[in-house]
């Protein structure tokens, strides 16, 4: 029998997963999207955990806090008395925790760290590093106290699209190679969670050629590996331009004069060139958006934030993600 659910658990059916993996090409704003999603899912009294695994301390930078330790810390409040916690998973610390949990090597594990063995193990075997990282995420997702989930949702700021398939699939490969023992058991458990309905992988994209192509490639790879897709999240989307033909220079000049503004040829030509470039750019964006629609994955668009992403901006993104105003 599964653990009892919090009364506010699984708000709505639009985001039903418990573990949300957020990936995207570098520079698309995946950390901001992951943070906004964690805030939205924490609304109305829920608890979410926002996790990073790349050692960049991107979450701390985004929220303007001290670097995150390898411990779950309260990060922010959400509307309706919700709570967002954060965790930066460190591979060395995760390995020490693993050695203590399965082999009771608490003090001995720390001694190995002093000798450099822990760093050696996680460096020489990068697959082991990813097993430890995903294992910690799985533990946080499934943890219970008094038969109740500690977190209503976990949001993982995951590696970028170029590495996401290998990162998520490493436990499957490890389970296949390890014949017996705790490593095989843990790897099988993580692999099962990542491929279950409890997990959804969301891909963040910009309406630019390279991010869109990497999104298409990532979804193809993840689908072939058996991972469940959540949404394609278009970040920094701009409102559509008014439909119709491009105005002429003569029309621009008349409009400027009517508004009491300078209308010399240099200004008019510059504005006309800018309008033409914008129209060409929007046509390309429309074409790229159509390519993403063809993937058959639900699409959500987040507005461009001219002033950058601060806490107020995260709240705007959060409402856009969760369908609020």
Automatic annotation (TrEMBL):
Lineage top rank: taxon: Bacteria
Range of residues in the leader sequence: none
SUPFAM superfamilies tied to this protein: P-loop containing nucleoside triphosphate hydrolases (SSF52540)
Name used for this protein in its record: ATPase
InterPro entries documented for this protein: ArsA/GET3_ATPase-like (IPR025723), ATPase_ArsA/GET3 (IPR016300), P-loop_NTPase (IPR027417)
GO molecular function, one term: ATP binding
ArsA/GET3 Anion-transporting ATPase-like domain sequence ranges: 20-177
């Amino acid at each position: 029998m599964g653990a009892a659910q919090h009364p506010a658990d699984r708000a709505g059916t639009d985001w039903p997963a418990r573990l949300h993996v957020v990936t995207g090409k570098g520079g698309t704003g995946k950390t901001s999207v992951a943070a906004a999603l964690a805030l939205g899912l924490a609304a109305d009294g829920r608890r979410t955990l926002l996790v990073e695994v790349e050692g960049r301390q991107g979450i701390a930078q985004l929220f303007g806090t001290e670097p995150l330790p390898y411990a779950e810390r309260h990060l922010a409040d959400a509307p309706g008395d919700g709570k967002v916690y954060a965790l930066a998973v460190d591979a060395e610390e995760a390995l020490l925790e693993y050695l203590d949990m399965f082999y009771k090597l608490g003090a001995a594990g720390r001694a190995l760290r002093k000798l450099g063995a822990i760093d050696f193990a996680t460096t020489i075997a990068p697959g082991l590093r990813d097993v430890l990282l995903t294992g910690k995420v799985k533990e946080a997702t499934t943890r219970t106290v008094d038969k109740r989930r500690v977190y209503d949702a976990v949001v993982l700021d995951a590696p970028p699209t170029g590495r996401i398939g290998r990162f998520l699939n490493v436990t499957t490969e490890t389970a296949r190679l390890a014949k017996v023992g705790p490593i095989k058991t843990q790897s099988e458990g993580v692999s099962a969670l990542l491929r279950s309905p409890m997990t959804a992988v969301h891909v963040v994209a910009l309406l630019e050629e390279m991010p869109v192509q990497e999104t298409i490639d990532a979804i193809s790879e993840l689908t072939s590996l058996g991972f469940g897709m959540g949404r394609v999240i278009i970040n920094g989307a701009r409102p559509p331009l008014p439909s119709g033909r491009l105005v002429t220079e003569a029309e621009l000049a008349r409009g400027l004069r009517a508004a009491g503004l300078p209308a010399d040829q240099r200004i008019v030509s510059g504005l006309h060139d800018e309008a033409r470039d914008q129209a060409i750019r929007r046509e390309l964006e429309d074409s790229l958006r159509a390519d993403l629609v063809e993937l058959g994955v639900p699409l959500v668009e987040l507005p461009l934030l001219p002033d950058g992403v601060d806490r107020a901006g995260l709240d705007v993104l959060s409402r856009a993600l969760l369908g609020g105003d």
